[in-house]
């Protein structure tokens, strides 16, 4: 039997990093545990993105520290017992930096740190600390929910641009920007982020909509893991943006099988990221995906991942209108004819 891994080249590049394959574990608490990070490497992940360090965690730490310093208090055993939550917050960012160091010692694959926030401020200094701790790259997750009716689309976009520029000014390592799909012109926004220095765009953040608890009359958080249907929105926009920006494109959201990975590559992604699939099926599922990817490529006579990348982007397909309004009309009428 032919060993497909010897004849098929799964390698790709992302953020200037050479990766053995396009399978990346996206940011989640899974990567908060060094043992899991090792398991991810053993199961074939080519890189990992650590869970995010949030602006709020950092700002809270600074505030708490300021208070401790000005009041001359210190963390006594008693305050730890009484304020375990506060200790957690105070420890958060430092523990995060220590975690980067531990992960770098534990695995050979690139470790991408994740910084999550929406405003310019002192917390952005952690980008440099993450670099100093050994992170190979940074993912800046801008999860911004504009609820102020006096804030214009331009102002929202400028916030993203300013953040990207501020982080780029802090570090020399590559910076990926993770964003949601809700922009009036995503193509234009991608170009602006590209011009601001983003080395990759990670498409897309999932928008976690809260639900209502009707008995308690409360708004409750609601986290449902994804399925492959969520892939389509990502495929669409990656296929459209591919070739329009210098930044690499990464797909996150809805990757659950080897064929999902193939589709991501064909649309134009450099890497396909996964969280829900691994939370549902376990980390070793990565191994199954790599094997199935090799089998699929062998059967369809592909020699390399690179050969696929962008091969079904908007500009590469015979009918680019498939990504535009014409397709919408076709989809609606095809349903009516059933
Ligand atoms: C439990 C959980 C925790 C997550 N934590 C983070 C996080 O800390 N930072 C981040 O950028 N994304 C986070 N995500 C989003 C994932 O990285 C990913 O983008 C999203 O789940 C879509 O990919 P999937 O369909 O493969 O799950 C989290 C997702 C889940 C399910």
Q: What overall geometry do the principal axes of the alpha carbons give?
A: globular
> What order do the strands of the largest sheet run in, or round the barrel if closed?
3-4-5-6-7-8-11-12
Biggest pleated sheet: 8 strands, parallel, barrel
Distance between the termini: 45 Å
Main CATH class? Alpha Beta
Counting DSSP E segments of at least 2 residues, the number of strands comes to 12
- Count of domain modules: 1
**Could you state the order of secondary-structure elements as H and E?**
HEEEHEHHHEHEHEHEEEHEHEHHHH
Helical content stands at: 40-55%
Query: How many DSSP H or I helices?
Result: 14
Radius of gyration: 21 Å
CATH topology: TIM Barrel
Mean pLDDT: 89
Class computed from helices, strands and strand pairing: alpha/beta
**Bound compounds:** flavin mononucleotide
Architecture, CATH level 2? Alpha-Beta Barrel
Strand-residue fraction? 15-25%
CATH superfamily: Aldolase class I
Describe this structure in words.
The structure is a single chain. The chain has 338 residues and is of the alpha/beta class. Helix content is 46%, strand content 15%. An eight-stranded parallel beta barrel has the order 3-4-5-6-7-8-11-12, surrounded by eight helices. It has a two-stranded antiparallel ribbon with strand order 1-2. Strands 9-10 form a two-stranded antiparallel sheet. Helix 9 packs parallel to helix 10 (258-267) and helix 10 packs across helix 12. Residues 68-91 have low confidence and may be disordered. Flavin mononucleotide is lined by residues 26-29, 51-52, 114, 116, 141, 178, 206, 225-226, 230, 252-255, 274-277.
